[in-house]
């Protein structure tokens, strides 16, 4: 409203100014102020950026499907509008990141989950037969302030819990994180132009006496998304997603770790068709993978997952079924 | 390589013992034939290596194609079939509505 008024007002003066010759000098000033006013209006109505941790979400969606080896079956049943239960069975081999070489261990587990979804209050719980428990809560304290709680409990010293406070401003977002092991994190992301947003983060790990800062930039138009992230831990991640059409998008990413001095780049496609979604990826380590989600019926999905790594002679194939939702 | 070094050592004692050589021995001892056999054996060696590495590359490329492209082709083909089917249905169901919409101008 205000923008249209202030925009409408400046164009009126120039014609009278332009007709008398003696009053030429003020003209550029008027134009300048007009353009300034235009810019100001523009810059005050910037869109809200994406959250800092989701800055590369499009690339992640396309390039990092949940590849698995073996068989999985997921079943979700809604008891009523807000409450639903999920059952999931997985049989196959899982890689344990032990020492230098990952070891494949045959595993089978059952996972039971309960979800409570309300627009202002969400609760998710998952229990696995091997004793792992994962609980998440998302509570809208006000319209702009969201509290997220995440807890992961398991045998051994890997249990963790975090509290996140997300504040969503008009053209910025900020988040404060607090976790066990005296972990504190803070990040802030701001829209700079309608397409470009810049962000920064800082974190402190009290028990390990480590701290770091990071910077991120994201440029998105309706055709492409480019994002880059640098952290003082030595991690550089760049990604680029190009939307060829509304069904097809091509993605590529580059990751460099200065600590371990390894760099990987990958390129993938993401086809979202009427009856299926197909994602394929090839990366610079020679890993070729594909993930197909086929919709057989309303609420019945068939999943095929394949991953081939010739260098390590590591072949992973999996199939699965998702029923419900 | 081993074959080319063996041949002279076998024929040399014969040539040393006898002053007169058979025609076959003379032919096989000649420089052209020796270099020819050497070239042939090294060519065979290279060809074998080349065949093996091409086979390996073809295997890798083929499996990568099987994983990356074959599903894509099948899925795209089905999508196109679905599109065609929908077009046909639209043209079958759409004709009456099209006729009714075109009817008013005809009555005018």
Structure report:
The complex is a heterodimer of chains A (325) and B (108). Chain A has helices spanning 2-8, 14-18, 26-44, 57-63, and strands spanning 70-78, 83-96, 103-118, 121-128, 133-140, 145-153, 160-168, 172-179, 183-191, 196-205, 210-220, 224-231, 235-243, 248-257, 262-272, 276-283, 287-297, 300-309, 314-323. Chain A is mainly β and 325 residues long. Chain A has a 19-stranded mixed beta barrel. The longest helix of chain A has 19 residues, at 26-44. Chain A is globular, with a radius of gyration of 25 Å. Chain A starts with a helix and ends with a strand. With 108 residues, chain B is mainly alpha-helical. Chain B is 92% helix and 0% strand. Chain B has helices spanning 2-17, 23-29, 31-68, 70-107. The A-B interface holds A 269, 271, 273-276, 278, 280, 282, 286, 288-290, 292, 304, 306, 308, 310 and B 60, 63-64, 67-68, 71-72, 75-76, 78-79, 82. Chain B: Residues 1-13 have a biased composition (Low complexity). Chain B: Its main location: mitochondrion. Chain B: Keywords: Membrane, Mitochondrion, Mitochondrion outer membrane, Protein transport, Receptor, Translocation, Transmembrane, Transmembrane helix, Transport. Chain B: Residues 1-21 are annotated as: Disordered.
Q: What fraction, in percent, of the residue positions of chain B are helical?
A: over 70%
Q: How confident is the prediction overall: mean pLDDT of chain A?
A: 85
Count of helical regions of chain B: 4
Beginning-to-end CA distance, first to last residue of chain A: 42 Å
Low-confidence stretches of chain A: 1-34
Radius of gyration of chain A, Cα only, in angstroms?
25 Å
Helix and strand element order of chain B: HHHH
Strand % of chain A is: over 45%
Distance between the termini of chain B: 96 Å
């Amino acid at each position: 409203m205000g923008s249209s008024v202030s925009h409408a007002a400046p164009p009126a003066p120039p014609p009278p100014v332009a007709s008398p010759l003696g009053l030429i000098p003020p003209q550029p000033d008027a134009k300048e102020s007009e353009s300034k006013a235009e810019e100001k209006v523009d810059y005050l109505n910037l869109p809200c950026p994406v959250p800092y941790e989701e800055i590369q979400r499009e690339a992640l969606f396309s390039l990092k499907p949940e590849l698995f080896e073996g068989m999985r079956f997921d079943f979700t049943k809604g008891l009523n509008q807000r409450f639903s239960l999920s059952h999931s069975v997985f049989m196959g081999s899982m890689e344990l990141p032990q020492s230098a070489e990952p070891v494949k261990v045959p595993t089978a587990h059952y996972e039971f989950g309960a979800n409570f979804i309300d627009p202002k209050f969400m609760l998710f719980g998952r229990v696995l037969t091997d004793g792992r428990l994962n609980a998440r809560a998302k509570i809208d304290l006000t319209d702009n302030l969201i509290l997220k709680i995440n807890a992961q409990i398991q045998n051994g010293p890997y249990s963790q819990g975090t509290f996140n406070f997300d504040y969503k401003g008009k053209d910025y977002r900020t988040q404060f994180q607090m976790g066990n092991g005296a972990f504190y994190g803070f990040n802030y992301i701001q829209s700079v132009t309608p397409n470009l947003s810049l962000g920064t983060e800082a974190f402190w790990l009290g028990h390990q006496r480590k701290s770091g800062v990071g910077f991120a930039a994201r440029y998105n138009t309706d055709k492409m998304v480019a994002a880059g992230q640098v952290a003082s831990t030595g991690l550089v991640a760049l990604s680029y997603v190009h939307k060829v059409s509304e069904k097809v998008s091509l993605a590529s990413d580059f990751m460099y770790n200065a600590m371990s001095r390894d760099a990987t780049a990958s390129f993938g496609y993401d086809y979202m068709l009427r009856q299926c979604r197909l994602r394929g990826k090839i990366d610079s380590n020679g890993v070729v993978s594909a993930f197909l989600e086929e919709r057989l019926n309303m609420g019945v999905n068939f999943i095929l997952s394949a991953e081939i790594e010739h260098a390590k002679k590591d072949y992973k194939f999996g199939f699965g079924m998702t029923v419900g939702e | 390589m081993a074959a080319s070094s063996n041949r002279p050592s076998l024929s040399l004692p014969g040539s040393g013992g006898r002053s007169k050589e058979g025609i076959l021995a003379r032919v096989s001892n000649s420089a052209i034939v020796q270099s020819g056999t050497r070239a042939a054996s090294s060519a065979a060696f290279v060809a074998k290596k080349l065949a093996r590495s091409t086979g390996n590359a073809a295997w890798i490329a083929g499996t990568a194609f099987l994983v990356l492209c074959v599903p894509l082709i099948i899925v795209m083909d089905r999508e196109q079939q679905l599109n065609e089917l929908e077009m046909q249905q639209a043209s079958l169901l759409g004709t009456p509505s099209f006729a009714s919409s075109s009817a008013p101008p005809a009555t005018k």
